[in-house]
Design goal:
- The complex is a heterodimer.
- Chain A has helices at 4-15, 29-36, 51-61, 72-75, 79-88, 110-122, 133-150, 160-163, and strands at residues 17-22, 42-45, 65-71, 92-97, 126-130, 153-158.
- Chain A is α/β, with parallel strands linked by helices.
- Chain A has a single domain (3-163), classed as Rossmann fold.
- The relative contact order of chain B is 0.20.
- The mean pLDDT of chain B is 96.
- Chain B is built from eight helices and eight strands.
- In chain B, strand 1 (27-30), helix 2 (34-41) and strand 2 (48-50) form a beta-alpha-beta unit.
- Chain B is an alpha/beta fold.
- Chain B has a single domain, classed as Thiamin diphosphate (ThDP)-binding fold, Pyr/PP domains (Rossmann fold, 3-Layer(aba) Sandwich), CATH 3.40.50.
- Chain B is globular, with a radius of gyration of 16 Å.
- The chains are: A alpha/beta, B alpha/beta.
- Chains A and B meet through strand 1, strand 2, helix 3 and helix 5 of A and helix 3, helix 5 and helix 8 of B.
Chain lengths: 170, 202
């Protein structure tokens, strides 16, 4: 069955994305598997999100487009590297699955859930938000266009509502 | 201060010049601070991208570049302080195994930008050991000019990813600053590598 993760995958393909840097996250798990199975894409698992903007800057220097997949908590690991994208006008497309909002059970996720969007904006990132499955693909398409044509950091915040409430069995 | 490194025989600018001369066609990423000045002193090139910031990001940037340009040699030259900030990236590089990437660390056991305070390598942290443990297939170390010369062929052509750590003298040298405008450096690099269309020129 087609769902919003398939929509993201299609938009990344249409945009010509070749490098997919990520720190695993449940919300991105299906997309990551799709990218890992794609012979045209290089799936690049990271040890920290901070590596992502640097990898993608190198990709752009070499003529390839990339995307960074992460969770809202990972946004906190990135600002100094996002600054490089701003300074050098590198494109930087980030897809952020949100925690710390709708139905969050883990209080430790609340601070970055609240700060991810404002922090990205503070760093000069254009921030979009997708709340419904129907809006995801279109939002990613618009974000990719601004990132790669406008040469700037752009993030799509994928609302926790899309992913469902994480419970750890509680 | 770390006085031991004041007497190391390898001189960083001679080493940078030797690596640049040995690799006229390679793509270079230079880590912020002294290694960027070293590569500039050896001759500023359009296909060198010198970092003025993004500390800890040089190896990861080299990885993205090496994956995008698998037919070109990509050489990251950075310092011990910079690499210590990005140790995880060594694991990320090793997992990707880009055969065309070499990461070279000039290890003077000091933070040169901020007053030559000791880095962890002064206390014995072994960057080559970290790279080896991460899974780099080819790791070289050098503490003498002879060993440094012997490592050059692997930097140039070893089946990578290659990691090479050189103990270099802790010395404060005259600035040799590369251009500072990051957007311009990026376009200069892409134009030289990919042609004028890559920067919107026709």
């Amino acid at each position: 069955m087609d769902d919003w993760q398939d929509g993201i995958y299609r938009e990344l393909k249409n945009a010509g994305v070749r490098q997919v840097a990520y720190v695993p996250d449940a919300g991105h798990s299906k997309l990551i598997e799709a990218c890992r199975g794609d012979g045209e894409m290089k799936a690049i698992p990271l040890t920290t999100e901070m590596e992502g903007p640097a990898v993608l800057a190198g990709a752009w220097l070499g003529g390839e487009k990339g995307v960074l997949l992460m969770q809202s908590s990972g946004v906190g690991n990135c600002p100094n590297m996002i600054a490089t994208a701003v300074t050098c006008r590198f494109p930087l497309l980030m897809l952020v699955t949100m925690r710390g909002e709708h139905g969050e059970f883990n209080p430790w996720q609340l601070p970055m859930g609240g700060a991810a969007g404002p922090m990205l904006e503070q760093m000069g990132t254009r921030v979009f938000r997708a709340e419904t499955p129907e809006s995801v693909a279109e939002t990613v398409r618009a974000a990719a266009g601004i990132a790669f044509e406008g040469l700037m950091p752009v993030a799509v915040l994928l609302a926790q509502k899309l992913i469902g409430t994480k419970t750890f069995g509680k | 201060m770390n006085e031991r490194a004041n007497d190391y025989p390898i001189r960083r600018r001679e080493l940078a010049a030797a690596i640049m001369a040995d690799n006229p066609d390679a793509l270079f990423i230079a880590g912020l601070g002294a290694t960027a000045w070293d590569l500039t002193a050896a001759g500023d090139r359009p296909t060198t991208f010198p970092l003025w910031g993004a500390m800890g990001g040089a190896a990861a940037m080299g990885l993205g570049l090496a994956l995008a340009q698998p037919e070109r040699r990509v050489i990251v030259v950075t310092g011990d302080g910079e690499q210590l900030m990005g140790l995880g990236a060594l694991a990320t590089v090793a997992v990707q195994r880009p055969a065309n990437l070499a990461i070279v660390v000039f290890d003077n056991e000091s933070y040169g930008e901020t007053g030559m305070q000791a880095t962890h390598t002064a206390a014995g942290v072994d960057l080559a050991g970290v790279a080896r443990a991460a899974g780099f297939p080819l790791v070289r170390t050098a503490a003498t000019p002879e060993d440094a010369r012997a490592a050059l062929p692997d930097i140039r052509a070893g089946r990578g990813p290659v990691f090479a750590a050189f103990k270099v003298r802790a010395e404060v040298l005259p600035f040799a600053l590369p251009p500072k405008d990051g957007a311009w450096l990026k376009d200069r690099f892409r134009r030289a590598l990919l042609g004028p269309a890559a920067v919107g020129e026709t």
